[in-house]
Amino acid sequence: MSATPPPKALTGEPRPAPTGTTAHDGALGWLRALGPRGRRAFGGAFGGYALDSYDYFTLPLTMVALSAYFNLNSGQTGLLTTVTLVVSAVGGALAGVLADRVGRVKALLVTVVTYAVFTVACGFAPTYETLLVFRALQGLGFGGEWAVGAILVAEYASARHRGRTLGAVQSAWAVGWALAVIVYTMIFSLVDDGLAWRVMFWTGALPALLVVWVRRSVRDAPQAAAARERSAHRGSFAAIFRPDRPGRAGLLRTTLFAVLLSTGVQGGYYTLATWVPTYLKTERELSVVGTGGYLTFLISGAFIGYLTGGWLTDRLGRRRNIWLFALLSAVCVLAYANIPSGANTLVLVLGFPLGFCMSAIFSGFGSYLSELYPTAVRGTGQGFTYNTGRAVGAVFPTTVGFLADGWGVGGALVFGAIGYGLAALALLGLPETRGKELQ
């Protein structure tokens, strides 16, 4: 009697299941397993997320120059980040619904165009209030890109490789971050600060090049698109808040705990992403070039952390990976924020494990949130939970901004460790999904 073959990944391309040593094994087996269409989808999602990261970091890197130009206090500069993240919840939720109703690729294009246009607009802002509005509108696109791109790739990936595949997509954030630091270092070394911050925002037009390629080359996973079209509840907010009833499983519990998980992880992360550049320049008194050098260690750790976390997500499971790095991230934050004055070499060294841990915890998010929701509301569920968590977590960097005037930026950074504790608690209400096929 012949064995029943395992379910295929949603690639629309038949291929045999891996047995023994196959082309799908090895360091890049996850990439080969995607097939040609899946690899193009991966390229679109990777590029979109890298440029999403680049456009986001135009603000933290220029924060000191902005503060001087508009005469802002720490609370006002922190509010720029908070507004971006709060509005990103709206953008993420809308993009998720759009992805379920019109398709992943079309929604991806809308998000990329939105965040690119309003990042460039920030460079023309004549007042702080105008900058605040433009940054909020940038958040609409910023909020939706990751969720849509992650779902697009998840529906091509096999259950066996999904953690590594989505971890690789997540690593694009470090690539975009590194590119932003390189451009920042060049611009602020050559141009006066009063103009340099505007030039930095104007470079946010780069995503326009990606849009042209995605329109021509990337398509939704065929079987996922067909399943989505058959559903009567596509893109329904009501569906992700439906409680359990006799004879019908609901998603309310999943949605609430997934929001709490996203809040904790992103509260901790954005506290660091927003304030570490300012911490290095003001309290560590580093130059522009010096800040860039220290951030190189942090970003290198982040890139390796994304890839390692993706591998561990497949080996340990989604929940264990997040638990492990929630603990390690909290320890690293506390250590980094309490380095004695004058010990800048230690700041340099600790930047690597800090970047590693705070990024590795994200690697499982793309696969985990995709697996928690059925195809018809996968975009809605993932877009809502991830970005609502981001919006609530935005309270953390603003709190640090207000505390910084009394505690100093370094002292206030410890507040980010609280977020990682919330993430660990949230996992108590969520199931393990490793090995789940997205049918």
UniProtKB/TrEMBL annotation:
<keyword id="KW-1133">Transmembrane helix</keyword>
<feature type="transmembrane region" description="Helical">
    <location>
        <begin position="292"/>
        <end position="309"/>
    </location>
</feature>
<dbReference type="GO" id="GO:0046943">
    <property type="term" value="F:carboxylic acid transmembrane transporter activity"/>
</dbReference>
<dbReference type="InterPro" id="IPR020846">
    <property type="entry name" value="MFS_dom"/>
</dbReference>
<feature type="transmembrane region" description="Helical">
    <location>
        <begin position="345"/>
        <end position="366"/>
    </location>
</feature>
<dbReference type="GO" id="GO:0005886">
    <property type="term" value="C:plasma membrane"/>
</dbReference>
<feature type="transmembrane region" description="Helical">
    <location>
        <begin position="251"/>
        <end position="272"/>
    </location>
</feature>
<feature type="transmembrane region" description="Helical">
    <location>
        <begin position="132"/>
        <end position="154"/>
    </location>
</feature>
<feature type="transmembrane region" description="Helical">
    <location>
        <begin position="387"/>
        <end position="404"/>
    </location>
</feature>
<dbReference type="Pfam" id="PF07690">
    <property type="entry name" value="MFS_1"/>
</dbReference>
<keyword id="KW-0472">Membrane</keyword>
<protein>
    <submittedName>
        <fullName>MFS transporter</fullName>
    </submittedName>
</protein>
<feature type="transmembrane region" description="Helical">
    <location>
        <begin position="166"/>
        <end position="189"/>
    </location>
</feature>
<feature type="transmembrane region" description="Helical">
    <location>
        <begin position="195"/>
        <end position="214"/>
    </location>
</feature>
<feature type="transmembrane region" description="Helical">
    <location>
        <begin position="321"/>
        <end position="339"/>
    </location>
</feature>
<dbReference type="InterPro" id="IPR005829">
    <property type="entry name" value="Sugar_transporter_CS"/>
</dbReference>
<feature type="transmembrane region" description="Helical">
    <location>
        <begin position="105"/>
        <end position="126"/>
    </location>
</feature>
<feature type="transmembrane region" description="Helical">
    <location>
        <begin position="78"/>
        <end position="98"/>
    </location>
</feature>
<feature type="domain" description="Major facilitator superfamily (MFS) profile">
    <location>
        <begin position="41"/>
        <end position="434"/>
    </location>
</feature>
<dbReference type="InterPro" id="IPR036259">
    <property type="entry name" value="MFS_trans_sf"/>
</dbReference>
<feature type="transmembrane region" description="Helical">
    <location>
        <begin position="410"/>
        <end position="430"/>
    </location>
</feature>
<feature type="region of interest" description="Disordered">
    <location>
        <begin position="1"/>
        <end position="24"/>
    </location>
</feature>
<dbReference type="InterPro" id="IPR011701">
    <property type="entry name" value="MFS"/>
</dbReference>
<keyword id="KW-0812">Transmembrane</keyword>
